[in-house]
Amino acid sequence: MRTLLPLVAALGLFPLLAVACGSKPGATPADATAPIDGSSDADADANTEPTVPTAFPTVVDPTGDSTVVIRGPGVAAATKVLLDGNPLPFVVSGTAVRTKVGVVGVGLHSLEVVTATETISLGKIKAWAPTQLANSHTFDARDNVTPGAKNEFHLWTRLIDAIPAGRDASGKAVPWIRRDGSCVAYLKNTNKYWMIGGWNGSDLDALFPGWPSISTNEIWSSADGARWDLEMAHQPLPDTAPTRFSPRHYFGCTLLNDRLWMIGGDYTNGAYVPNDTPGDPDVWAQGTRYHDDAWSTSDGINWTKSPSPLPWMVAPINQPRILHVAGTFKNKLWVFGGQNGLVEENPADIRFYNDLWSSADGISWTRVQDNDFNESQTKRPTPRGIISELVEFNGRLWLVGGGRYTVDGYEKFFQEVWSTDGVDNGSGITWKKHATPPWIGRRYATVKVFDGKMWLIAGYTNDGSFNLRESWFTTDGERWTSEAEGALPWNESHADGIAVGPNGFVMAGGNYTLGNYFDTQTWRMDVVHGPRVSTWKERGTGTLTLRATGGKAPLKADGLPAELPSSGATALDFSNLGGGAALTFDGLSTSLDLPARALQPAGRTIAWVGRSPFVPSDVDHQVLPHSEKNPRATVLGDSEDGAQDVAFGLTDGALAVTVRKPTGEWVLSPFGGGFSENAGKIGVYAITQDPTTGTVEAFAAGKSLGKAKWPYPNDSGWRTVGVGAGGYDPLFGQLGAVVVLDRVASADEIERLHQWAMGRWNAE
Predict the structure, then answer these.
(1) Tens of pLDDT along 216-243?
(2) Beta 59-60 vs 119-127: how paired, if at all?
(3) Are 382 and 354 in contact (CB under 8 A)?
(4) Where in the chain is the domain with CATH 2.60.120.200?
(5) How many helices (H) and strands (E) does the chain have?
(6) Statement: 162-520 belongs to CATH 2.120.10.80
(7) What is the 3-state secondary structure (H, E, C) of 440-496?
């Protein structure tokens, strides 16, 4: 038997192996101690194999279902994992072993890994819950939650604020250039997202060197939507290139039989040629006008070109086009409409199309319906295009929205929804026009199908702000529901790259009208299903109960999927936040309240476990001006009759405390930072305040982030979870637990809380 050094007796703590907290330094109060970022000492080498077998965490909940990860030499050969000699369920994931501890008695327990050749002792782990802390109130989403009516919430989280540079085949750094009209798709057989092509729209070579033209044929990939790798660098190629497509943007992009298809595309792949005359502007050299090719790939890197040009582009039809709409339906590729005539055509030669084509293989195409050029047509869609995708939904092929460009500056936008059964019974395809939707007509919107719904996201219109911050969905194509603007943290946008992944949407790139015009952030949207929560009672023998007031009930997640399944980890439920043990707050009005403020004359500790999505700080977004002083995601506040003296939460990714001074002035103390980067990660945060000195200390991942001093009034206490006074600064995200101590916790207790939470919410 291999025996390791004894664990720390009180806690059984190994050095931390990995922590789900951010690592970007942030601001701290002027009188705070030197800040740290809240990541564990082992964050930098979380992927480095330890020299001896170790387990993390070493604190598990007595009620069961805590996850422990074991790493180190020999553990991947495990045939058994034993707790006090009894077998535990486990999986081998890479070089680590992941196990779940069931119901177990409070106290210390022996943990071992058995291989074919040895038994590896990992020492003791401790079964413990924060209910054992003196003067504590533990609200745990696994316990004492009263469910109400079923509902759902769409949780958008920012994965990264800017895609970093990649490396080309020679190892040279290549910046990710802002773009719109790229294809972003999830290829199931690669377990990756792929970003292909795109358009920059301006001569930005001086700022973003790398592209010799304003469209590209770059290929990037990502396993999670946050970290992207450059797979193929930009290469200026003609359409005649046999093994790689030429630069382009807003081409037909769709998935069929685990292959990603690129169909045609527009001609914005010319280049600015430097002018030899000093002072004169560069000259635009027109590139390929209309792409007549189709390409496909099963792995994102190796592409096959269809042997024949697209039939509508060549004789005898001779109707070259861009901005057509492609999709899949009944195991075929489909293409609808489009137009010619953005530059250099005689206005008399401009055509808008409403023909419909299909193909089972991308080589042989059938014209299912010809153009009728009839603007008065009521039995089928009139000519149009500029939609991300045709989609298959409820057994029909759908065309949603769309628009046209015209040479006289007039732009048409369609506030229409059409579908067809796609069956030619000898009399042709039958289209159905659905009820006029409540959204305004738009082009460059994204249409997708996910979670039993058809979605319409963002887009461009001449009405109002031009670009749109909107998300609509429908279950039948007739009745549409709008996502509240305050629940959409991204900017107004069009021509976004949006993929449907295993768990929801990933958005990368797009054309934005606020700030940076072409966004460099990436986002993910999860659909959370579950009941609305009417009450949340503290765990154990405590008497405090939080209640929803009015329509302000958060949602309890039934089961939020993991980011992506780990290799071999499908036999056990290793979902984020424990497969649903979390309350989801909508960033608008949801909160839970005590009947009256709970006073804390002996000091306080506020701790919570959760996922805290990024919320923009720009007041031109949806953030209220009040948020400039209060935490922008108030986890816990002390409002009493509309007044509030202190609130705890996050501001711009920093752990934050806001205090109202006796003069009435609000002051803010941020600690650390980066806690909303890759915001799907779970964090464990704590803030203490000493009543004698007023010292406030903040913690993340069990480590101190610094200190500040604020007065501690005699009536200090707390009342609300999820929103500040007057409904300001509501929480946007999920809470797995809130632990409140009516005293100052020790550093030892803070670390124990951290380890308990890591195991209970599988947040290695």
Answers:
(1) 899 999 998 888 999 999 887 877 889 9
(2) parallel
(3) yes
(4) 2-151+529-559+573-760
(5) 2, 57
(6) yes
(7) CCCECEEEEEECCEEEEECCECCCCCCEECCEEEECCCCCEEECCHHHCCCCCEECC
